[in-house]
């Protein structure tokens, strides 16, 4: 899945703002990163391509609430309920902040709510949209999920250390004075640091630190389940559904985790194709055997037929010629058609005129009702005749048994 991941600037964007970005072609490996004006940001290509906006850790506040029963994502009263729950915890007026609820929660659950400045977020998203890079998802740089990890980010003059886990996100200046405020991490807790502040992190916290570029962290953020595009920033439900389908399909086609499933699907398809070919071969062989049997009967019955083109038609012609030679009546003869019609007509009904041609009898003046026509046709069918209405006339002909 091709993605452009844009790190939103902390201040209001202008025409000269350079946006930090990262790009990926498969959703897992970093393809490119850098800084660029919004109009020059690379465009993602291909199925499931998307633009993901990353909200800086300093721009998001996290609050934990207990959702009332009956309140869940998609509920019309969700925004009002969150405002009521957070009214006393927020420093700003509820109308000036944007709220986003933790994914996958239900009424009665304890859930995290992300809070950020609404006007700032709107300006940043509008700037991207004006540059032809509208954001399809909005994710936090750090989210309250997973086990505890420490990440040192920024520049040496303004270094920040972030502790994130399912218990919350805490961002503090990276200094000796703030270290006691950090939760005590276990020995195996991940410790990541941007190259610019790695030495400072090792000096203050003498533990092994793994180097991680900011772009690599944003790529991980883009894979988060969180999406802050809620309420007024939410896409239409249809667009979001189509995006999820496209993203899921792209993951299925490209993700290494799905490689065994892809091989299994290819193997299953190959087995089905082999089975279909075997079934088709068997049906063709059976059809050829039946065709050969019909031709053999024609040759044995009428040895004078030298060339066989259409065995049923040729056999019918030979039988008709033999019938004429012996004087045997045919179901297509006029007298046979008249006898069958007389036996099937309702009492007191007689045609006013007949027209016979090519083994077909047309009886006029009957004016049968639909029920009477069905009754006549039902009585003629066991005799080998088909009756149809043509206006006020009844058309009678021997059924083709081929």
Automatic annotation (TrEMBL):
Kindly indicate whether the keyword Transmembrane helix belongs to this entry: yes
GO cellular component terms, A-Z = Gram-negative-bacterium-type cell wall; plasma membrane; type II protein secretion system complex
Q: Which UniProt keywords apply?
A: Cell inner membrane, Cell membrane, Membrane, Protein transport, Transmembrane, Transmembrane helix, Transport
Q: Which residues form the GspL cytoplasmic actin-ATPase-like domain?
A: 17-141
> Where, per UniProt, does this protein localize?
Cell inner membrane
Residue span, GspL periplasmic domain: 257-379
- By its UniProt entry, which InterPro entries does this protein fall under? ATPase_NBD (IPR043129), GspL_cyto_dom (IPR024230), GspL_pp_dom (IPR025691), T2SS_protein-GspL (IPR007812)
Query: Mainly localized where?
Result: membrane
Keyword match Protease: no
Matching SUPFAM superfamilies:
Actin-like ATPase domain
Its record classes its membrane topology as: Single-pass membrane protein
Concerning NCBIfam families, the annotation shows: typeII_sec_gspL
Task: Give the family per the record.
Answer: Belongs to the GSP L family.
* Protein name as annotated: General secretion pathway protein GspL
Q: Which organism is it from?
A: Ramlibacter cellulosilyticus
């Amino acid at each position: 899945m091709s993605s452009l991941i844009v790190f939103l600037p902390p201040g209001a964007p202008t025409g000269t703002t350079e946006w930090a970005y990262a790009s990926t072609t498969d959703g897992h490996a970093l393809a490119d990163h850098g800084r660029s004006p919004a109009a020059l940001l690379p465009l993602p290509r291909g199925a499931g391509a998307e633009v993901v906006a990353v909200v800086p850790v300093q721009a998001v506040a996290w609050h934990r609430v207990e959702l009332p029963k009956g309140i869940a994502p998609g509920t019309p009263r969700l925004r009002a309920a969150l405002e009521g729950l957070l009214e006393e915890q927020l420093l700003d007026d509820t109308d000036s902040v944007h709220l986003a609820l933790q994914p996958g929660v239900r009424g009665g659950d304890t859930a995290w709510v992300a809070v950020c400045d609404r006007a700032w977020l709107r300006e940043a998203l509008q700037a991207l949209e004006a540059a032809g890079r509208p954001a399809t998802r909005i994710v936090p740089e750090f989210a309250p999920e997973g086990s505890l990890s420490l990440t040192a980010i920024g520049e040496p003059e303004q270094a920040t250390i972030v502790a994130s886990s399912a218990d919350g996100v805490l961002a503090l200046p990276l200094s000796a004075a703030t270290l006691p405020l950090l939760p005590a991490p276990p020995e195996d807790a991940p410790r990541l640091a941007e190259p610019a502040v790695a030495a400072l992190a090792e000096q203050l916290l003498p533990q092994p630190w793994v180097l991680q570029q900011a772009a690599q962290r944003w790529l991980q953020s883009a894979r988060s389940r969180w999406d802050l595009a809620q309420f007024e920033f939410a896409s239409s439900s249809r667009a979001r559904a189509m995006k999820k389908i496209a993203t899921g399909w792209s993951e299925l086609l490209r993700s290494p985790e799905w490689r065994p499933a892809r091989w299994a699907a290819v193997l299953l398809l190959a087995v089905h194709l082999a089975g279909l070919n075997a079934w088709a071969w068997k049906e063709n062989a059976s059809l050829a055997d039946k065709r050969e049997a019909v031709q053999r009967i024609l040759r044995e019955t009428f040895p004078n037929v030298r060339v066989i083109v259409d065995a049923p038609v040729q056999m019918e012609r030979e039988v008709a010629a033999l019938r004429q030679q012996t004087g045997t009546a045919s179901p297509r003869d006029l007298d046979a058609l008249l006898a069958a019609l007389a036996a099937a007509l309702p009492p007191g009904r007689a045609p006013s005129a007949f027209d016979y041609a090519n083994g077909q009898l047309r009886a006029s003046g009957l004016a049968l009702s639909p029920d009477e026509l069905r009754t006549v046709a039902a009585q003629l069918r066991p005799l080998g005749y088909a009756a149809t209405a043509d206006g006020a006339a009844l058309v009678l002909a021997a059924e083709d048994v081929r």
